[in-house]
Structures are given as structure tokens and as C-alpha cells.
Amino acid sequence: MTMDSAPARHTGQGGTGPSVGSTGTGITAVRRSVTAIHPPRGPKAEQARPAVRPHRARRRDGVLPLLSADALAVAVTTAALPGLQLPVEAAVPVAAALAALHAQAGLYRPRLAPSALLELPALAGRAAVLWCAAAAVVAAAAPGQALGWSVLLGAVCLQAVLACAGRGFVNQLRRRLRVRRPASTLVVGPGAGASAVAAALHGRPEYGLRPVGLADPVANHAGTDGESGALPVLATHEDVRRAVIQNSVRHAVFTRPPEADERTAALVRLFHDHGCRLWLADPAGTAKVTGMRVAQPADQLWGYAVQPLLPRPARPLERYAKRAIDSLLASLALLAAAPVMGACALAVRVCDGRGVIFRQERVGLYGRPFTLLKFRTLSADAHESATRWTVAGDRRMSPIGSFLRKSSLDELPQLWNVVRGDMSLVGPRPERPFFVAKFSSVHPGYEARHRMPVGITGLAQINGLRGDTSIEDRARFDNHYIDTWSLWQDLWILARTAASFFRFRLGGS
């Protein structure tokens, strides 16, 4: 494990380590002990690590309190101004319309330093739009009950003031909760900029972010000394993953755009998979983000410009549609390919003896193992090793086995894996546990491939990355497929695969 840290001084059971230095910013961090990060022990450390199922972390600063404050402001405004003449049941659609307007303006997005007074112009503008629209609806439905200008102005002003007061109350409660229960945080970035942000978080507990380490993905390449006060500097993808798990990290603060280098981009996927919330704090004030959505309006962290980095929408309905399409197409393909599969099975039985189906353990979604099915391509007395990379050119392979591999017909039994839910038609190709553990330790983005169900074919395969080809290239194509996934892309990959399905290829995947 590559992890450097400054020696921490402890004074008894309640002792604390040294503080994070000011790093030229004039900020002295509060002295806090740092949770130790230990490497795994025992032989199981070399086995394949199951990927963590993405989960929605429990948010102490969710949108429900703000939604409640806005709905209460609507209810009080409607009740306090008799001239509105709106029925009670109209309060619900009015509150829903206001919530939609606030969401469109980003007024429900996470903030480190929220201020209701700074939001007042936006609140007043949305209140004006809301009540003008309500007045237009009332005038169209009941011309005799049209709202006067004085009533309309009073509703806008009262709505804005009540919403501002309610949000101020919610913000104050959140600050107190953050001070009492800060969330573990990793600061991601190189050098003095990351140390300065960590020092600011230490010194200002009202932000609710307690730094437990500095993640510098390029530290071991840039030759940094790896010391930043009491905070460990995590220089490898494995160090960061272990720190996130052992410290229950819930926030990651980047000091430069995540797409600045490949290793930093791989950390974004790791944090997403563990339910962390991502922020971009820009000490230099010049960061430009192009690979992710950046929320507006802007926020600040002790004077540093900071913005939440938002992942792409999860699109659960499309995920269910993908599974339904997989089941339907795989079932139809099994029926259509039954004569071909019968001929293949008969050829294997006649030429190579008993044992037509080859079974092997592979790693699937979230690192779960499953049994992959293929037509056997080696002789009956030969066994494909779980630690041997390829059997291309193996003398134990019969002519029929070579034909099945080159034509990819040996993959047809995997349609049953798709029907059972072990695999998808399109996704990263599954690999054996030994190689998953090996490649994950060498290629930072390899483990992130298990965010999506594994597949019979994928973006890497239609680009020729099969058999003994670059693992780094495969991982890059697979992660790009996951990051840009859509149903249309799946159909496009299936069409490309079908067009070349019977084309002879060297080696197998």
C-alpha cells in the first residue's frame, strides 16, 4: 500500500494529532485525530473484491425540509389574504408549481453555505411568476373573481418573505446539525491547493465536512513527499477505495476538474459507486468543467468558489426497459438459434466426447460471481485454467472447437445466462475472479466496469478488443459505454454485433 502521512502525536485516550498547516492561507486547522487506514490482511486480500452496490446515502440536507418550508409559505399566503379567493384544494397545485419553479432555478440543490437572504431575489421572482399565472387562470375560469393588482402584489411580497424566513430557519437547523455531526470527507487534488481546502474545512465546522485524508492520484508520479499535517496522502486508487470504506466517507471535494487526468476521473466513478456527494472547490478560481454537470447558482467554501458536481440521471425506467428487452430478445434468440445450437452440441459430442457445455465462474454486476455457460472447445480431458489468460492456439483444441471460437458460436449458451439475469445482451465482458483482482490492482478504472450488468457483446468487442488485446483499452471503452449508456446505444451495438457475428475471428474473449 502506498500511503504517506506525518507522524501523529497522541496524548492518552483523548489525544489528537497535529493540525493541518496553513499552507500560506493564514488558516490554522482544528486539531483532530485521523482514523487509521490499514491494508487488508490474510490470503483473501488477493481475491476478487466485490464492487460496492451503488446506494443512495442518507442525506441530512435533503430537499424535504425546504419543500415543507415553501409549501407552508404558500398555505399561509393563501389563508392570510382573503382577496385571493382561492379554494383550499387549489393550494396543492400552487405549491407543486412553486416547487417546480424553485427546482428549475436550482434552489433545492445542495449548498455548503446557503443564505436565504441571497436567495430572496430568486424567491421573489418565482413568487411573481407563480401568482401571475394563478391570477391568469382565475381570470380565465371566473372573470368575476379576477385578482386585483394590490392583492397580487401582496401575495408576491408575503410569499417571498415567508419562503425566505422558512428557508433561513431550515438553514440554521442544518448548520447546528453539521457542527454536531460532521461527515467524513476526502479532499482530492495535488499540492498546496488541496491542503488549503482541507485546512479551511478543519477550521470552519459549520460546513459539516471533516477531512480524513488527501487523495492525490498523481502523487506517486509527481514525486510529492506525501505529507500534509496529520492527514494521510492517498496516492493510489486502492488507498482511496479503502479509505472511503473504512472512514464511511460521504463527501469528496475536488480542487480541479475531475477530467484533469485519467486517474482523477476514475475516482469520480469510485465515489459515485459508494454514494458520495461530489464538490468542486477551485482555489485558483479558473477551473472549467466539461465532463460533468455543474450545478448553479455558485457556492463558496471560506472564500473558495465551490459547486456541486452532479452525476447523470440514474434513469431507472430505462434500466428496467433494458432488462425487459434483454429477456425478450434472449428468449426469441434461443428459439431461433435452437437448430444451430443443437448442431453445435452434436458436433462437440461426436468430435470431443461427453460434456458439451463448459461452465466457469465469472464476475458479474457489483462483483457477484455467477456461472457462465459456453460450448466446450477443448478436448474432454482438458480443463481451461482459471488463471490462464487465453487458450488461442492451444493444441488440445479440436478443429470443431477452433471453429466455434473463431465464429463466436461457442457463446450462444450465454443467452440462457441473459434469460436468468446473470448477464445482459450488451455490457462489459465478464472475466474470471483471478484476473478481476489482478487487473483492478493495475488499471484504476477496471473495477468500475462492474457498475453495469456484464454482457455477451459490448462497445469494446465491436471495436475489435477481443482475445489477447489491451486490458486498459477495454476498461476505457467499457466505462465510456456505462457513462454514456442509452437504449439506442445498446441497439446500435447489437446491430453491429449481428452484422459480424459469423465473421471468423482469432481468439476468444
What's the short version?
With 509 residues, the protein is α/β, with parallel strands linked by helices.
Task: Tell me what the structure shows.
The chain is an alpha/beta fold and 509 residues long. It has three domains: 3-7 and 181-310, 3-Layer(aba) Sandwich (Rossmann fold); 64-176, no CATH class; 316-499, no CATH class. The chain has 16 helices and 14 strands. Strands 1, 2, 3, 4, 5, 6, 7, 8, 9 and 10 form a ten-stranded mixed beta sheet that branches. A hairpin with a 2-residue loop joins β4 and β5 (231-234). α3 (120-141) crosses α4 (149-180). The chain is flat.
The profile of the biggest β sheet is: 10 strands, mixed
Number of domains: 3
Average pLDDT rating: 77
Number of strands: 14
State the end-to-end CA separation. 31 Å
Shape: flat
**Overall helicity:** 40-55%
Instruction: Kindly provide the radius of gyration, computed on alpha-carbon positions and rounded to a whole number of angstroms.
Output: 29 Å
Give the topology string: H per helix, E per strand. EHHHHEHEHEEHEHEEEEHHEEHHEHEHHH
Helical/strand content category: alpha/beta
Unreliable stretches covering 5 or more consecutive residues: 1-50, 54-58, 221-227, 286-291, 504-509
Strand content: 5-15%
